[in-house]
User: Fold this.
Amino acid sequence: MTKFMDVHRGMKGITPDQLKAAHEADLAIEGEEKVHFERAWADPDSGTVYCLSEGPSADAVQRVHQRTGHPCDEIHAVPLTI
Assistant:
């Protein structure tokens, strides 16, 4: 499995409760795509949200996000960690 960092834009003003709800929506169906969303971060001022996940492909990550109503603008594989 590969780790992915995805980026969502246009979420200006997102609240902690909204970020939590979006993350929980992903968690509720992630298994259907064999993806696991590990963590999410947000900058309400810029409207940027980042999600760290692990899964079989960027397409699988995007399918989960699309189904839960918040498709991502970018997905980057991050195969190296230290």
